[in-house]
């Protein structure tokens, strides 16, 4: 794994350089990736997540833990940011939670934060958004998806404006890259961005093979649940990291139908190779 502060093409094969949008796209993907910190009695658990939805709210009381405890008037202008990740970051017994449909009752909003822009060890400022609602996960009998999302709150509207611009550009570039990949007939690149071992953000470059795409279920409007296996190197702390899969026909950024994949787990003791959470993509006819 490498940082990509100096060379955005680090470890990326020359054949992909015709996709000129890729470096800028990865920078936006990086900016929308955060380190999730969940405080527990036994210590903090760290993972990664991706901001895929931003909603501004005004005229109602902020639901964050700080505002709820504050005796002063509540904030009336705030934003809710939906961060996709994996369930086992919050609940070690995630497989039981999937089968029962009940999350750990010990999860508390005050114990979850997401640190943004943690790119180097010498960051001058720590920027956080704060968890307030652990959302449902993709639940299906006999399908262990491990995917979930957490809603976070911030009162920093300048930060929100910055993130909105990056998310809009991310989606725009995503479409351009998809069309270019079809033109070039390239579809085997896999890039994962996250916070291994709770450290600064790093990029892992690898590949997947078509036969390693597992189709789990076909759903409405020519969409399918699927997950990928890949040869990227990942470590503890990469759980929940967003995954970019070149040529993947994504369905957009909805809540349940249209979410991309997040890294779920490594497949081998040497951490070479991994498996994604369930994601949703179009069935290409």
Automatic annotation (TrEMBL):
Keyword line: Hydrolase, Protease, Serine protease, Signal
GO molecular function: serine-type peptidase activity
Record-linked InterPro entries: Peptidase_S1_PA (IPR009003), Peptidase_S1_PA_chymotrypsin (IPR043504), V8_ser_AS (IPR000126)
One of the protein's GO biological processes: proteolysis
Superkingdom of origin organism: Eukaryota
UniProt cross-references to Gene3D superfamilies, sorted A to Z: Trypsin-like serine proteases
SUPFAM superfamilies: Trypsin-like serine proteases (SSF50494)
Keyword GTP-binding attached: no
Protein name: Peptidase S1 domain-containing protein
């Amino acid at each position: 794994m490498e940082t990509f502060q100096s060379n955005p093409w680090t470890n990326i094969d020359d054949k992909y350089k015709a996709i000129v949008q890729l470096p800028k796209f990865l920078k936006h993907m990086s900016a929308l990736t955060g380190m999730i910190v969940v405080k527990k009695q036994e210590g903090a658990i760290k993972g990664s997540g991706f901001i895929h939805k931003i909603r501004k709210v005004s005229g109602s009381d902020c639901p964050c833990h700080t505002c709820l405890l504050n005796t002063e008037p509540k904030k009336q202008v705030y934003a809710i940011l939906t961060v996709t990740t994996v369930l086992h970051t919050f609940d070690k017994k995630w497989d039981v939670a999937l089968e029962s449909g009940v999350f750990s009752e010990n999860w508390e909003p005050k114990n979850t934060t997401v640190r943004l822009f943690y790119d180097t060890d010498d960051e001058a400022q720590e920027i956080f958004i704060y968890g307030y609602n652990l959302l449902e996960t993709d639940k299906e009998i006999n399908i262990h998806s491990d995917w979930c999302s957490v809603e976070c709150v911030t009162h920093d509207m300048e930060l929100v404006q910055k993130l909105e611009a990056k998310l809009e550009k991310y989606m725009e570039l995503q479409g351009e890259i998809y069309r270019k990949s079809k033109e070039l007939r390239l579809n085997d690149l896999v890039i994962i961005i996250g916070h291994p071992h709770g450290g600064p953000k790093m990029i892992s470059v690898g590949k997947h093979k078509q036969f390693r795409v597992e189709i789990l279920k076909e759903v409405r409007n020519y969409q399918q649940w699927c997950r990928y296996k890949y040869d990227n190197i990942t470590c503890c702390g990469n759980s929940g990291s967003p995954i970019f899969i070149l040529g993947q026909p994504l369905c957009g950024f909805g809540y349940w139908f249209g979410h991309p994949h997040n890294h779920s787990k490594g497949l081998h003791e040497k951490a070479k190779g991994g498996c994604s959470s369930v994601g949703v993509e179009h069935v290409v006819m």
